Amino acid sequence: MALLAERNCALVLLLFIFLTEVHFQSVEAQRCVWYGECGDSTFVPGKKYNCNYTGPPLPLPAEGAELLNELCPGLDYGDRSLCCDVNQLQTLKGSLQLPLQFLSRCPACFVNLMDMFCELTCSPHQSLFVNTTQTGSVGNQTNVLAVQYYIGNTFTSAMFNACRDVQAPASNVKALSLLCGKEASECNATNWIQYMFDTNNDEPLAGFAPMNNQTWACTEGLDDGSGPCSCQDCAESCGPKPVPPTPPAPWTILGMDAMVVIMRRMVMSEYGPILDSNNPMSLNGENSDGTDASCWEVLGERFESALRRLFTAWGSFCVRRPALVVFTSLALVAAASAGLVYMRVTTDPVDLWAAGGSRARQEKDYFDRRFGPFFRTEQMIITTPVNGSFDFQPTTGGSPIHFSGQNVTLGDICLSPLAPHNNNCTILSVLNYFQNSHQVLDHFLGFGDLIYADYHTHFLYCVSAPASLNDTGLLHDPCMGTYGGPVFPWLALGGYDETDYSNATALVITFPVNNYLNDSDRVGKAKAWEKEYIRFMKNYHNPNLTVSFNSERSIEDEITRESENDVSTILVSYVLMFVYISLALGHIQSCRRLLVDSKVSLGIAGILIVLCSVTCSLGLFSYAGVPLTLIVIEVIPFLVLAVGVDNIFIIVQTLQRDERLHQEELHQQVGRILGDVAPSMFLSSVSETVAFFLGALSNMPAVRTFSLFAGLAVFIDFLLQISCFVSLLGLDAKRQESNRLDILCCVKLPEGQEEKTDGFLFRFFKKIYAPFVLKEWVRPIVVAVFVGMLSFSVAVVNKVDVGLDQKLSMPDDSYVLQYFKNLSMYLHTGPPVYFVVEDGLNYSTADGQNAVCGGVGCRNDSLVQQVYSASLISQYTSIAFTPSSWLDDYFDWIKPRSSCCRYYNATGAFCNASVVNPTCLHCRDLTPAGKERPTGDDFMHFLPMFLSDVPNIKCGKGGHAAYSQAVDLGEGGVGATYFMTYHTILKDSPDFINALKMARQLADNITLSVGHKVFPYSIFYVFYEQYLTIAYDTALNLGVSLGAILVVSTVLLGLELWAAALVTLTIAMILVNMFGVMWLWGISLNAVSLVNLVMSCGISVEFCSHIVRAFSVSLKNNRVERAEDALAHMGSSVFSGITLTKFGGILILALSKSQIFQIFYFRMYLAMVLLGATHGLIFLPVLLSYIGQHARTHALILSLTHSLTHSLTHSLTHCVCARTYILYLSPCIVVSSYHVTLPPPPPPPGPSANKAKVFAAKQRYAGTEREPLLNY
Questions:
Q1: What are phi and psi of 383, to 5 degrees?
Q2: Which residue ranges run through the membrane (predicted)?
């Protein structure tokens, strides 16, 4: 930007000038102290001293009249007798160029400043307030070397007040920060004058009057028609300072959290009725009478009957034709899995967390296409554990970097804003105050041990005036970086208090690197350099320094490394589960039959089927071009293993407990068992599949991709289990019946008689656990505990944190963690934010300009003005500074008084301000029309010159460095543009989320006022947008999943809405309790945890649906007995199939080095398994015992049983479904009409069991070995 000011005004004096109130001797009013220019200055190269002259003012030559009117119109009167000649006026004009470019935004400010220098240089009353204090002779000429300039306090205060708020748009700071030698907030009238000149104050003598000319306030218009300064350049011209709205008060009742109060009341209201178990109308009340089967029940039984017949026939076929089924399954699996050759894994964080159609993604793509992607950042934060001083020697090293056969250096990839005029890299470091030169760093002035000036004095000067080209102290070294721009201290230092930079405890070094859109070659070079940079920094060690570092590729590299390292943890977890499954499936009758009754081979086959379902899902979606994510690869095998293993245990354990019927063959037995259990498996699998597929409606790519892959994998797993696994089960049963060893099937044991017994877990659930849980005094306690858990979780659900701490995405041993820690500890600036004006706005019209700009004449609700107003309440809006405005700087650059905009008279080409050529003409004339802003063709004609102008000492407003990328300039005119500012310091997810929300609110307000689309963009928006709607997305995803489970369960439970509602209710309680665990365990809500919640919804179906279906078809006399029956038979399979299988594997995840695995997988998986098991195996049976469907009377069962043994004479059919005591999952069949005459009983007080199912069960088992069980 090259905006320097420190000696700009002093140059007009061509010497050192001392300001003070001093003693003057009596002089005549019309006397000068100098006139004309003499010898060359020894302090300011290229400048001259003024000639000593104490005579009266002299008439100004005619050729200087126009220049006098331009610079000092207040002195253009009479015969123009002045104390300066044309050369002095030319020098004055040149010296005022930088103040002109920065302060002319506010006409009153600049007129006051010019008046001060005009009076000093040319006033005919010069001797009244200027006293010569030092002269020097060169030949026959006497040079004025030093003077005292007496300025009244009234004038200096008024001048400062008019200028203190003027902005420097290109630097996002106030102009006085560049012209005062310190921060604008610390600048005042005295130290501003001191910085422009130099002070050595003495008391003034009587007889000398200070220069106290009339001044203009920034709220006043000038005589030449210039208006008052704009609001952002003059606080007095603004209305009241915006006040942030008061944050909403927390919701309380009697001073306590309202949610807590409500949940406490809920616990009492829910627990009371349960205690009253003797009330005949209470939940414990039981009406055993029933009514005739309704048409609804008939339809439900018909559907279940169809499923039973289908699965029975299919199971029999699979056992009879195992080779056909297995090889066909393998062929289909191979064909589907072949799609893995097209597999693409997405590791780009943008693709993982931002949907292509999301607002943030579209805005990012728009920004990248118009202005290029945000630059890549390489950064180091250096601290020291040493309290004292130490010697530091520069370190060199690093291997040569090669990419595509080329050597790559930092110069090849770095950001060089002034290229091709200046190819030095942008390096934001305090060392750039010394131009990255060891020689400059060693500069000092002193005598012996007495040091007058050294690196420390230069450092203190540069942090006050980072854009200075000349240290006004003794060293006169520049502060400007070698790349042609300033290094602001808040970007290069850390760990300081407010603006006390000398107490900084950290050095920050930043290397911005060019980034490219769709240019893999140049991006590849940058990545190659970054790779070597990371390697070098990892190997660098210095006992006196602590260096944390980061590069653009660091996060992606560490996530990849983390995934690779976690492979071993995942494999150990899976192996542990595999071993358990293989051993637990077997039901050992005796030690002699250990190797016969074990089912290691069947367990391995079941696990392989689970893995095949995963590969099929991955392959099929890879065929479709859907990319995978790391979440899919890491989570779905875990999910499908949970679902699939449960079904395996149900099938195998049901067969182990079953007694083959008289004259029933193996294939018929397996078919009958599959007809019993497959509807329950079908219920859970379809519920999960539909829930997952509906979860794909999410806008978050990670959630959508997971849901798609998971839904298909679960359904394929179900298909393989009822086909391939059933065939393998039949083969294993034949092996076991022939006494052949497991795995070593060629070895056969001798025949022996073994008594068949139930397994330990089944006996425990049947004899001990189920009766205990359903005891009269235990059930109220269970309900009270679970209602209390639910109430607590509801009370804290709105307190769960939202976001993902980026530190959690890194492994425990990652070097990036230390960088993140130091970043939040030391960094004193926020990320840049761009307010983008989409193409279509006409900047060449006054209306279009006024809607955007921030200077004189611009609207109070313009873009720049609104962003400025937001920066005044930065603690609320998170906007830290006034935005840079290419439009306002363009207007300053093109002003007639400015030396910036010139062109060659002969060719019309741009002529830079540093060029000395008499043929270069100003772009605009110093006429009333020329002083106006350019419009129409003028605007477009000179704009390309502005954007190509490199800032220099003569013109600091050149737009090449600051704005060459900010304006999308095409043949049709100005397209999209941006106005950049910075956010405040953002340290955690809530800060980032709030900054995004506030920026969008501001941009929406600007869009309404401007009448043209404006949006904000910052590099982090694309990652944090999801959190603006994460609560809605979570509610939608989980709500849709629960709705799908309700609908599917209703249909597959034989149209029993009440049973489906209980399943859905229990799953909803599990999900709400998951939020309670998240709050207690510090787990935030984000895309990763939402994926786990969706998965929790699916796994919970396995815990609940089997229990409820077992209850719904049980033939016990009342709800308590039916709940006990369901828990005894199905509970053991659920416990061994899901809970124990997952528990061991989950514990291994705690050993992972990945913090994401420890928090979002270990903690959440453990919570979902424990909550699912406790709700499914404790709460749900108790709930069913209270509000499950009513059972039929014992008399009804006996009557129906004996009636069904007679012939069936009518063609009317009824759908029935029931469960026997042993099989507990009976299928549905169609039976003919029956002759049963029963008196209609009174209607029950609650939902009743499906009598059609009861009737069908009696008919199905009448006359068989199972008939006595009906009366159990």
A1: -130, 175
A2: 570-588, 600-624, 630-652, 706-731, 777-797, 1035-1055, 1062-1081, 1087-1105, 1126-1152, 1164-1187
CB distance 817 to 1206 below 8 Å: no
| Joined tokens for residue 563 | 């995934």
3-state secondary structure of 1102: helix
Q: What is the rounded (10 degree) CA torsion for 601, 605, 608, 609?
A: -170
Give the Cα separation of 613 and 337 in Å (integer): 9
Contacts of 295 (CB under 8 A, 6+ apart): none
What digits encode the pLDDT tens for the residues 190-206? 888 887 776 554 445 55
Nearest to 1155 by CA among 554, 548, 558: 558
Helix (H, G, I), strand (E, B) or coil at 129: coil
Instruction: For residue 780, say if its preceding peptide bond is cis, omega within 30 degrees of 0.
Output: no
Furthest CA-CA distance within the chain: 146
Say if strands 141-149 and 16-19 run parallel, antiparallel, or are unpaired. parallel
Provide the angle, in degrees to the nearest 10, between the axes of the packed helices 1087-1112 and 1119-1134. Answer: 130
Residue 5, token pair as written in the block:
């000011």
How many Cα atoms occupy the beta-carbon half-sphere of 527 within 13 Å? 12
HSE (side-chain half, CA atoms, 13 Å) at 1235: 6
Report phi then psi at 379, rounded to 5.
-145, 145
Average pLDDT, integer, range 371-396 = 80
Cβ–Cβ contacts within 10 Å for residue 797, how many?
A: 19
pLDDT of 727 over the 60 cut: yes
Q: What is the pLDDT of residues 1085-1126, one digit of tens each?
A: 887 788 788 878 877 887 887 788 778 777 777 788 888 888
- Tokens 């008052």 correspond to 228
Q: Which two tokens stand for residue 73?
A: 């119109």
If 0-12 CB within 10 Å is exposed, 13-18 middle and 19+ buried, where does residue 812 land? exposed
The DSSP result for 464-476, as a single string, is: H-TT-SS-TTTT-
Residue 650 makes CB contacts below 8 A (sequence gap 6+) with 677, 680, 681, 1106, 1130, 1133, 1137
CA atoms within 13 A on the CB side of 571: 6
Question: Which strands form 506-513's sheet, in the order they lie side by side?
Answer: 493-494, 506-513, 376-383, 546-550
> In 3D, which of 405, 335, 765, 382 has the Cα closest to residue 549?
382
Of 60, 33, 62, 63, nearest in space to 49 by CA:
33
Distance (Å) of CA 917 to CA 87, 88, 96, 899, 969: 17, 20, 20, 12, 29
Q: Check: CB of residue 1178 under 8 Å from CB of residue 1158.
A: no
CA angle 283, 278, 287 (to 5 degrees): 55
pTM: 0.77
Determine the Cα–Cα distance for residues 300 and 307; give it in Å rounded to an integer. 11
pLDDT computed for residue 332 by the predictor: 92
Enumerate residues 6+ apart whose C-beta is below 8 A from 118.
Answer: 71, 72, 74, 75, 92
- What does 141-206 look like in DSSP terms, one character per residue? EEEEEEEEE-B-HHHHHHHHHHHTT-EEGGGTEETHHHHSSS-GGG--HHHHHHHHSEE---PPPT
From CA 545, how far away is CA 27, in angstroms rounded? Answer: 64
Q: How confident is the model at residue 710, as a pLDDT?
A: 81
Dihedral, CA atoms, 834, 836, 842, 843, nearest 10 degrees?
Answer: 0
Task: Note the Cα 999 to chain centre separation in Å.
Answer: 15
Are 902 and 941 a contacting pair, CB within 8 Å? no
Write down the H helix ranges in 598-629: 600-623
Higher pLDDT, 1155 or 908: 908
Compute and round to an integer the Cα radius of gyration of the chain: 42
DSSP state of 750: P
